[in-house]
Amino acid sequence: MGGVNAAVLPVPCMNVLNGGKHADNTVDFQEFMIAPHHAPSFKESIRMGMETFHALKGVLKAKGYSTAVGDEGGFAPDLKSNDEAVEVILEAINKAGYKPGQDISICLDPATSEMWDDGKYILFKSTKAAISPDELVKLWESWARQYPIVLLEDGMGENDWTGWKALTDALGDKIELVGDDIFCTNPAILQEGIEKGIGNAILIKLNQIGSVTETLETIEMAKKNSYRCFVSHRSGETEDTFISDLTVATGAGHIKTGSGCRSERVAKFNQFLRIEDRLGARAKFAGRAAFGR
Fold first, then answer.
1. Count of other CB atoms within 10 angstroms of residue 74
2. Contact at 8 Å (CB) between 173 and 154?
3. Among 68, 110, 27, CA closest to 261
4. Are 184 and 208 in contact (CB under 8 A)?
5. Which of 145, 170, 197, 242 is the most exposed place for a label (fewest CB within 10 A)?
6. Measured between alpha carbons, how far is 207 from 205 in angstroms, rounded to an integer?
7. Vertex 262: Cα angle to 186 and 77 (nearest 5)
């Protein structure tokens, strides 16, 4: 797969803090990721990410928070607010010796489909408040101004196409907006999203659509329409590493596959290191350009 052009190693978007349905804590949003993009190689990028992951453990410990991990290996503390989740990560980036936004940026997957309830979004773990789709779009606009966010996945729910269009109009030219629940790695749904101007990227989950053929068809459609492809693990992962090969073969440029712990997550990182080593001088690291905006 990929042929001679398969030489681009992705930015590892590491899920370092968990909330939502993936953790028993007070954080509404499901995944807070770091993207160590300012590196000369994948090897150096994963080192930056691991250093920040362990720095985050120190930050949480110093604040008296738990350092137990959630479903995908990220820490799952009871925080005072959703904003604090981003703020402790930024503190950890600085503590690890890197600059937020310049060296390492933030990616989010709030999994808002889990919050959708009859035309509103419920902050079901923190304030229990109900907010409108317009208010949620304004929240993401505010966060994009305040924090070095380069990617927002599932910023609106899968059934909220109107909200998705409003979000795309507001932030589509500023950050990467990834559709997971709304597109389901499905070329037919992606085509509808392209026609309606929904998002600017798609999450690629190999076993979501069901076959390698359909996955490659979806990736090709996305590329032809200037949509980014963000390859992803699943919550019930195994140590199979094929998605690492798929990511390099298709030149996707970025992947999310957990944090710096749990063997089924680390297995993917180790495969990238082997691929980079085999490619030798041909290997290229995607870097900040992977996010496009």
1. 30
2. no
3. 68
4. yes
5. 145
6. 6
7. 90
SS3 104: strand
| Positions marked active-site | 72, 205
Distance in angstroms (rounded) separating the CA atoms of residues 258 and 267: 10
pTM over 0.85? The answer is yes
Strands (E), the chain: 8-9, 11-18, 31-36, 104-109, 116-117, 120-122, 130-131, 149-153, 176-179, 201-204, 228-232, 254-256, 284-285
- In the numeric block, the tokens 């996010």 are attached to 291
- Characterize 41-73 residue by residue with b for buried, 16 or more Cβ atoms within 10 angstroms of its Cβ, and e for exposed: ebbebbebbbbbbebbbebbeeeebeeebbbbb
245: pLDDT confidence band, cut at 50, 70 and 90? very high
Judge whether residue 258 has pLDDT over 80: yes
For 69-107, the pLDDT digits (tens) are 887 889 999 999 999 999 999 999 999 999 999 999 999
88: Cβ–Cβ under 8 A, 6 or more apart, which residues?
17, 56, 59, 60, 63, 79
